[in-house]
Amino acid sequence: MNTNTEHPLFLDLAYSQCNKHGESICGDAFRFEKSDSDGRVVAVLSDGLGSGVKANILASMTATMAMKFAAQPNYSILHAAEIMMSALPICQVRKISYATFTILNAWTDFSIRIVEMGNPPFLLFRQGEQIKIPFERLESERWNDRKMKIYHFSAQCEDRIVFFSDGISQAAMGTTEWPLGWRESGCASFIGEILGNTPSISSHELCNAIIKEARGKEPQRINKDDMTCASLYFRHPRKMLIFTGPPYDRQHDAECAKLIDTFDGEKAVCGGTSAEIIARELDRELKMDLGSISSDMPPMSTMPGIDLVTEGIFTLTKAAGYLEKADTFMPRNPAGILAEMMRRNDLIYFLVGTRINEAHQDPNLPQELELRRNIVQRIAGILRNKFLKKVDIKYV
Predict the structure, then answer these.
(1) Residue 289 in contact with residue 302, Cβ under 8 Å?
(2) Residue 64 pLDDT more than 60?
(3) Burial state string for 31-66 with b = 16 or more CB within 10 A and e = fewer than 16
(4) What radius of gyration do the chain's Cα atoms show?
(5) pLDDT of residue 38
(6) Are 232 and 164 in contact (CB under 8 A)?
(7) What is the DSSP letter of 292?
(8) Which of 26, 179, 203, 259 has the fewest CB atoms below 10 angstroms from its CB?
(9) Are 248 and 373 in contact (CB under 8 A)?
(10) Are 228 and 47 in contact (CB under 8 A)?
(11) What residue ranges do the domains of the chain occupy?
């Protein structure tokens, strides 16, 4: 496992959503994928008319169609937009069909194209300062009330691109403090303040902070519209190493400990035996974190030089469940902390011991308590497909 290989810039992409108060389904839709053929990343945010199920249908249809068009190497933006607008069902109440969209294409050389129709304008931050990008207008003769903006520019290292639905820019509209809503300018000021205080904040954490701030401005935190925020962060990749399970041959214990000790990124050890091996080989004190004891999860431990020490299979299985749900806010338990660590890093290395742990062969244990090899493969698939992470697994 070579963890010291130089990697190009990494695109850290994440989004957060909050349903309109009282609704069980979000009227916004966000889709993204990475092309296997050219490595291009396509992301789409759509906001359906109204809220609830009808809005969700409009937004989901628009986002799905936009993804298919945008994934094609050479497509007509105007033609695609007209097809999407014509395909949407008509609202029986308002007699119109309407869903906004923001379509982003990011190529491997970090050239960017963004198409907006109806959504608040995206925000670009470079070196902590907001940058305005010129755009061209595109209008449809068939849909003359639908005007689009098209932006072309090249992203640079440490750039941030943030875009959101109007549930965020219109938060607190009608209140004494924000009669016209939070607006794009208020959101931009907030982002600038966050980047000034925590310039390395991940996209996931930034989106969460924006959603939380927007909801906090609503009276009694009751948001009157769906809120969706997406963020892209162009950065040098962050690395994380997860060691779980004792090596098959005990002679490899020292080798694994040395690899962990010299790793230049965040480190997690998942498993009691695994932690004891590292503590013994590195002569480190291993202590249980009494403050993490709870009724539903095994507690964490602490060890100098290791960022997170948890129980093994059960914690990994819970973390996989959190990642699959892509929860906006992770629980502050060992599995939630582990999942959050994986989300904020870009290159995830697994060092997996293959010695059989007899405790996990008990047929009375829950069926979802998968064997270590299977759960690591499951997590790797989630990280690659859902979060566009690069994952490397080595069995020892």
Answers:
(1) yes
(2) yes
(3) bbebeeeeebbbbbbbbbbbbbebbbbbbbbbbebb
(4) 23
(5) 79
(6) no
(7) G
(8) 179
(9) no
(10) yes
(11) 10-235, 239-395
Residue 6: pLDDT over 90:
no
The residue type at 205: E
- Fold annotation for 10-235: Phosphatase 2c; domain 1 (3.60.40)
Taking CA atoms, 145 is separated from 96, 98, 142, 150, in Å, by 12, 11, 9, 16
* Three-state DSSP class for residue 148: strand
Instruction: Please report how many Cα atoms fall inside a 13 Å half-sphere around the Cα of residue 313, on the Cβ side.
Output: 21
Q: Between β-strands 147-154 and 227-235, what pairing exists: parallel, antiparallel or unpaired?
A: unpaired
Give Cβ neighbours of residue 60 (< 8 Å, ≥ 6 apart).
Answer: 29, 46, 48
pLDDT at 3: 66
Q: What is the mean pLDDT of residues 250-261?
A: 93
Mean pLDDT across 19-37: 90
Given this model, what pLDDT does residue 369 score? 45
Cα–Cα nearest to 43, from 128, 121, 106: 106
Helix (H, G, I), strand (E, B) or coil at 380: helix
Place of tokens 């974190």: 289
Q: Whose structure tokens read 């599995």? A: 335
For residue 221, which amino acid is it?
A: R
370 — pLDDT class (breaks 50, 70, 90): low
Distance CA 63, CA 48 (A): 10
Six-digit token pair at 326? Answer: 């892509």
User: Within 10 A of 129 (CB to CB), how many other CB atoms are there?
Assistant: 10
pLDDT for 368: 43
Q: What is the DSSP string of 133-189?
A: ---EEEE-SSSTT-EEEEEEEE--TT-EEEEE-HHHHTTTTTSSS-TT-SHHHHHHH
The pLDDT of residue 242 is 98
> Quick check: 163 pLDDT over 70?
yes
Going by pLDDT thresholds of 50, 70 and 90, the confidence category of residue 68 is: confident
Tell me if residue 116 falls in helix, strand or coil.
strand
